Amino acid sequence: MVWGCITHRGRGPLVFIEEGIKINQSNYVEMLQEHLIPWAKKVFGWDDGTEEYEVEWVYQQDSAPSHKAKETQRWLRENVPDFITVLDWPPYSPDLNPLDYSILGYIKSIACTKPHESVKSLKKAIRKAWDEMPDEIVKRVMDSWLAASKRVSMQKEDILNKFLLLSCFY
């Protein structure tokens, strides 16, 4: 298993999860603390005096059990400027996760052009594809994600407005 993140500012760290490790809320939070936070402080700027990021950012993740666990949600509230909560993120929505619908396909197309004889060889090819992925691809995917997220948000707002309108009649 592998974890990575992307923003308009480029790609973040790529973390390989050891074979046989089942991701739970504790080791997921540990991985975020060890890899996401140092990277985010560097990319978005960190002011030691105010203990705040210089540039606001929002963390988005899917609805995997370790992501929506109470410990994870608490940690995110305490450690990132903002994040999309479990309640605000539609379940089973890989079409809204840029890593799922685009980046992983790109990585596979580069790293898996031929069969690998070992896990080590596969990891090396994945890391090389990730590291050499053009910034323009990441930016284009993030633009697409932002547009899709806005459409979902507008649809959600329309549904909520219709519900509120309907509830006024009862």
Topology overview:
Layout: E1 2-7, E2 10-16, H1 25-44, E3 46-47, E4 52-53, E5 58-59, H2 65-68, H3 70-79, E6 82-83, H4 98-111, H5 119-132, H6 135-168
Parallel strand pairs: 5-6
Antiparallel strand pairs: 1-2, 3-4
Helix pairs in contact: 1-3, 4-5
Can you walk me through this structure?
This protein has 170 residues and is of the alpha+beta class. The protein has a single domain (2-168), classed as 2-Layer Sandwich (Nucleotidyltransferase, domain 5), CATH 3.30.420.10. It is built from 6 helices and 6 strands, in the order ββαβββααβααα. The chain has helices at 25-44, 65-68, 70-79, 98-111, 119-132, 135-168, and strands spanning 2-7, 10-16, 46-47, 52-53, 58-59, 82-83. The chain has a two-stranded antiparallel ribbon. The radius of gyration is 18 Å and the shape is globular. It starts with a strand and ends with a helix.
Q: Output mean pLDDT.
A: 85
State the total count of DSSP E strands: 6
Strand order of the largest sheet: 1-2
CATH 4th-level superfamily: Ribonuclease H-like superfamily/Ribonuclease H
Counting DSSP H or I runs of 4 or more residues, the number of helices is 6
Poorly predicted ranges: 159-170
| Approximate shape | globular
Rg for CA atoms: 18 Å
Characterize the main sheet.
Answer: 2 strands, antiparallel
Spatial gap, N to C terminus: 50 Å
